[in-house]
Design a protein that fits this description.
heterodimer; A: 354 residues; mainly alpha; two-stranded antiparallel sheet; globular; B: 352 residues; alpha/beta; Rossmann fold; 6-stranded parallel beta sheet; 11 helices; 16 strands
Chain lengths: 354, 352
């Protein structure tokens, strides 16, 4: 009789793990195509329309890049905390605080030149986001609270603060009572790259990703963080300052999400309004896991996920597929890729039972 | 040479037939919630279907579009794909649409519920507060606890205006009626909106009204065995035992007229705010629970509004602190209505 056993792989799969991921995505696409067929949409055409809408033209790619920027920065942030096995679910709130910080500077000093205003906005956004991230870290280390719950709950507080400000003291007097701040001055807006519609936030992403990569790969602190992430007890035994490490990763995590909030407020919306919150902080968690916390892969995953969201709009417009299809497809991809992760570290073996 | 001539004839014919075939007018709609919401977007989509049935028109839509930067991309993509008219049906689409309108001068942009416009972008809305007033009369006549619950989306002028009109309507038939407001800060979130209605039931409300896109509050009212007033479309199917009536949208005729004017080349950017007289807002059929004399009274008021003999916001109207905001005998002008950020007397809640 054949007996199925699950065995941990002895040697890493290496480049072949790419095949697993491609297989997983292909499977998710197949499921999605089946779903399209079930509702009477030609599946092949559907998938083609989806890809065309996402990557089929210059502006489609530009749209994806614009959408990928905030997702990427939030995801880069949460991945830093996840490395240390600190579960920061609060990127949404940290993003919000970043947007608030940047807006505060932009509204307070509208007449300053861009070279002064933009760095000040970034500084305020990262400080605000970082401090918002620090709170759950301090509570965790000093009072043994659960950082998942605290960081998650703080998202709601952050959004309520945003509401309080835009419905109250920051409301544009010329907006007929609608909740939005006045538009930022020209100097407070991150410009577009050349003749494209992509803003300079893209360059910020590249630079920040490089810094994070160098930090983890080539600095002592980065190395210690990785060590603590792999084995907390061993790291403590080795005398690594675990408390400080937790504070550090949460501040960095929050600062990056805050930076994303700055770019959204400045470059894409040009003001602060409640609809700036569309859940990038949560998407970031999905992306970080899909990309197994690697900055380079996070870039790819952010771009592809942004592409999926942009492409689904095309699918709606051309074939009248409901919007919910995009969410279902995202779910399929996450499920198959994470399930596929199992095959990267384990394998099946069929042994004859004696 | 003969081949050349033949080709010439063929190409001429092709060109000729091409110019003869009437150009299809492509009309796009951007919705903030799914069209299956039975509310706001559903009502707009009914309007789209009316446009779809017109001669030489094709339509399409994108649903569940968030009101931030995503909206700009969706509207832009419609313009790039050669849509002739784009209707954006939520307030938050205003600035994104204005940006896109500047880039595509040959496309007609129509924005619902905002106030900005340009050469090729108009805005439109309906005087829903008139129907709100009538539905408030029904609620005021039916309540016994004199507490009417109102689950509301966001404290913006459109919603506040509706609540005020509703409260004035209720007070016009029942001087003791109060309207309790709970903000959900959502347009479409069935669970949250149902919870909001439940919290109103807990403080003694026996009629539930709503400014939300989901029928969640209707269900909450039916489960508690009290009455409800729907919104957007006739929601009686979701709560047949509770649903008394609903102020409803009827966008079809208006959308058709806009598309027609674009086809004729007579379209011009304007700020349109038609009222009940055009049928763009109306009251859903009364349920059997509403006594005949109340139905008659409301119908009579409706006829007066349609005839222009009366209006909703005519002074004296006081705010919550008892301060007169609209003076005796004065009818509020549109500017006052569009920027309304205060509640009338008898409304319990804050506008923040």
């Amino acid at each position: 009789m054949l007996h199925l056993r699950i065995i941990k792989r002895q040697d890493p799969l290496g480049w072949r793990s790419c095949l697993v991921i491609f297989g997983a995505v292909a499977l998710a696409l197949f499921f999605s195509a089946m779903l399209l067929a079930l509702r009477g949409t030609p599946p092949q055409e559907g998938i083609i329309v989806l890809f065309k809408g996402a990557f089929g033209s210059r502006w489609a790619i530009e749209d994806c890049l614009i959408k990928a920027i905030p997702i990427f920065l939030c995801s880069l942030g949460v991945a830093i905390a996840f490395r240390l096995q600190i579960w920061n679910i609060g990127a949404e709130g940290q993003f919000c605080l970043g947007a608030l910080g940047a807006t505060w500077i932009a509204l307070s000093f509208p007449d300053q030149p861009a070279w002064l205003l933009l760095p000040a906005m970034i500084a305020m956004a990262t400080v605000a986001g970082g401090l918002w991230g620090l709170i759950p870290a301090v509570l965790r280390q000093k009072m043994q609270t659960n950082e998942i719950i605290v960081s998650l709950m703080m998202n709601y507080i952050a959004i309520l603060i945003l509401d309080y400000l835009v419905y109250g003291i920051w409301k544009d007097p010329t907006s007929f009572g609608f909740p939005m701040t006045p538009e930022f001055s020209e100097a407070a807006i991150v410009g577009k790259i050349g003749s494209t519609s992509v803003n300079w936030g893209l360059a910020h992403c590249v630079i920040l990703a490089l810094i994070v990569w160098i930090f983890f790969g080539y600095t002592k602190t980065g190395y210690e963080l990785k060590a603590s992430g792999d084995n907390v007890k061993a790291a403590r035994y080795a005398g690594l300052p675990y408390n400080k490490q937790v504070f550090l990763v949460m501040v960095l995590s929050g600062a990056l999400a805050g930076w994303a909030g700055f770019i959204e407020a400045s470059a894409t919306v040009n003001r602060l309004q409640p609809s700036i919150m569309v859940g990038y902080g949560y998407t970031a968690i999905v992306v970080a896991w899909l990309a197994s916390l690697n900055p380079f892969y996070i870039g790819i995953a952010s771009f592809l996920l942004a592409g999926l969201r942009v492409g689904v709009e095309n699918l709606q417009l051309d074939l009248q597929v409901p919007a919910a299809f995009g969410g279902i497809m995202e779910g399929f991809i996450l499920l198959t890729v994470l399930a596929g992760g199992f095959f990267i570290s384990y394998r099946f073996s069929f042994a004859q039972k004696k | 040479m003969r081949i050349f001539k033949a080709l010439l004839v063929v190409s001429l014919l092709l060109g000729f037939s091409g110019s003869l075939a009437a150009k299809e007018t492509k009309v796009g709609f951007v919705y903030v919630s799914p069209i299956g919401d039975a509310g706001w977007s559903y009502a707009h989509d009914q309007g789209r279907l009316a446009v779809e049935s017109m001669e030489g028109v094709t339509t399409s839509y994108v649903e569940s579009v968030p009101e931030g930067p995503d909206a700009e991309r969706v509207i832009q993509n419609m313009a790039r794909k050669g849509f002739d008219v784009v209707f954006a049906t939520s307030f938050g689409y205003m600035d994104p649409m204005l940006k896109v309108a500047g880039q595509f001068p040959d496309t007609v942009f129509m924005h619902c519920s905002g106030f900005k416009m340009s050469e090729n972008m108009g805005n439109y809305f309906g005087r829903m507060y008139q129907a709100r007033f009538l539905s408030g009369m029904v609620a005021g006549a039916m309540t016994e606890s004199n507490i009417i619950g109102y689950a509301a989306a966001f404290p913006i002028p459109e919603v506040i205006r509706g609540i005020n009109a509703f409260a004035l309507g209720a007070q016009s038939v029942n001087a003791d009626a109060t309207v309790r407001v709970v903000w959900t800060k959502t347009w479409y979130d069935p669970a949250t909106e149902k919870e909001a209605a439940k919290s109103l039931l807990d403080v003694g409300a026996d009629v539930i009204a709503q400014h939300q896109d989901s029928p969640g509050p209707q269900e909450a009212a039916q489960e508690k065995g009290v009455y409800s007033i729907g919104y957007n479309s006739d929601m009686s199917a979701f709560a047949p035992k509770a649903h008394l009536t609903a102020p409803v949208w009827n966008w079809g005729p208006y959308y058709a007229s806009v598309v027609k004017s674009v086809q004729d080349g007579t379209w011009k950017a304007e700020a349109a705010w038609p009222g009940m007289e055009t049928g763009i807002v109306d009251l859903a059929p009364f349920a059997d629970m509403v006594p005949a004399e109340i139905q008659k009274m409301v119908e009579a008021k409706k006829a007066e509004i349609i005839a222009g003999k009366t209006d909703v916001f005519v002074g004296p109207i006081k705010n919550q602190d008892g301060k007169v905001m609209i003076a005796d005998g004065v009818a509020a002008d549109d500017k006052t209505l569009l920027g309304m950020t205060w509640f009338v007397e008898g409304v319990i809640g804050t506008t923040e």
